[in-house]
Amino acid sequence: MVCYDPTLIKYPWLSPPKGMKTGECGNGAWENEYSAVFPNSVSTEDSLAHNLRMLFKDELPAFYMAINDNEVFHSARINRRVTWLKMNPDKGSYSTQDGRVTLIGDAAHAMTPSMGEGCNTALESAVKLFDIIEARTKRNGEVICSVNTISDAFIEYGSSRPTETKQIQEESAARNMGPQ
Q1: Calpha distance 39→84 (Å, rounded)
Q2: 93-122 per-position pLDDT tens digit
């Protein structure tokens, strides 16, 4: 679940505590991976489990009915750091090793909407993938792209594109880290 500012206004308990500083790991700051792990053993009105249950019941009633299970809500945590930036672009790839599947758009390089770069980056990825497929098809002397050619193209795209998108993702995340 991704929450934007209007959600934080309506549900202020989703925000980290005021006055948190960088480096206060485990205390709820925005940059911490597991910044809001509330004690959920008791269902009090201020527990994360209770608050999430009420949020889902009010905002997503059909989803609430589908997951209305105490264990789901009691095992919840709030991750406030942009975890998709963890991938090492030197070792990561947007494609499987056999080249049968590749990721494009938000599936490959998700980012927050604040810079308006998500669609641009996805379109650039589509063009990059097309260019690689077209070049490999011509290089192999094919009129119609073969399965092997497209698999090789997927692998080339998957290994080259992460280094081109990571900076945009980092800039997007930096603008959305919240107050420091």
Answers
A1: 26
A2: 888 888 888 888 887 887 777 678 888 999
